[in-house]
Automatic annotation (TrEMBL):
Belongs to the binding-protein-dependent transport system permease family. Gene3D superfamilies: MetI-like. It comes from the Bacteria. GO terms for biological process: transmembrane transport. GO terms for cellular component: plasma membrane. The keyword Transmembrane applies. Residues 56-236 form the ABC transmembrane type-1 domain. The chain crosses the membrane at residues 6-24, 62-81, 93-115, 121-141, 162-183, 189-206, 218-236. Its main location: membrane. This is Binding-protein-dependent transporters inner membrane component. Keywords: Cell membrane, Membrane, Transmembrane, Transmembrane helix, Transport. It is found in: Cell membrane.
Length: 251
């Protein structure tokens, strides 16, 4: 990013917003927005509390299980839709509907099916994450050059070898892109699910902080969640950069 001809780091914009937040908080213009420095102090105190540590374990466990299920189901389903036209015709409409639907409205239904507990959070993460993984995997498989498939067959590749050693690796850039977007949506799923259930994980903490107007802790927990989403997105993006050369092999 350049400003008045000078190169400015991207983090500079974040620092500007932090300064604005601090000023607005110090002027006490908005009751629900404490100074940013108070939020940072609250974050340091928050991570030392046993309640936060227990909520983090619950949240990360539900997120990890939901994402693992979404990846385990989404990638094979996307490959199937990319390779089998009948499967694509049967499932494509439903995948597109769920990928664009307001999934927050389905969480109460999940609460009825799975109860007010961790299973509902896992199901919410799964539903939020899987559809973009399926669509991106399907797109990656569709972009594989037919000559690459024919070459593998001419060398006597079996069907399992064709899928595991050729198709999966050739579609890997799009698969990783889908996983990265799915992880971000999975964070939304775990937050929305816990906010609606409000008795487990971070949802219980958000409920406690908002009900008692402990806004510094509320915003500290929000920043921790944003940092978590940014971290996992950055890790997957780095993995994408390392496998970009696979895309050239499909042409």
């Amino acid at each position: 990013m350049t400003l008045f001809g000078y190169r400015v780091p991207m983090m500079a914009s974040l620092l500007v917003w932090c300064v604005v937040w601090e000023i607005v908080g110090r002027l006490d213009l908005i009751f629900l927005l404490p100074p940013f420095s108070d939020v940072l102090v609250a974050a340091v105190d928050l991570v030392q509390l046993p309640s936060w540590q227990s909520a983090t374990i619950t949240t990360v466990r539900a997120f990890a299980i939901g994402m693992a299920l979404a990846i385990a189901v989404g990638i094979p389903l996307g490959i199937l839709m990319g390779r089998v036209r009948i499967a694509d015709n049967l499932l494509g409409m439903w995948v597109n509907i769920f990928s664009s639907a307001p999934l927050s409205a389905i969480v109460p239904v999940l609460m009825i099916l799975f109860g007010f507990g961790e299973k509902t959070i896992v199901a919410a993460v799964f539903l939020f994450a899987i559809w973009i993984i399926v669509l991106d995997t399907r797109a990656g498989v569709r972009h594989i050059s037919p000559s690459l498939i024919e070459m593998a067959r001419s060398y006597g590749a079996s069907r399992p070898a064709l899928y595991t050693k050729i198709i999966l690796w050739a579609a890997l850039p799009e698969i990783l892109a889908g996983i990265r977007l799915g992880l971000i949506r999975g964070v939304k799923g775990v937050v929305i699910g816990q906010l609606l259930v409000a008795i487990v994980g971070y949802g219980a903490l958000f409920e406690t902080f908002s009900r008692n107007f402990r806004m510094a802790e509320f915003w500290a927990l929000t920043i921790i969640l944003f940092a978590f989403a940014l971290l996992i997105s950055e890790l997957i993006e780095r993995a994408e950069a390392k496998v970009e050369y696979y895309a050239g092999a499909r042409q």
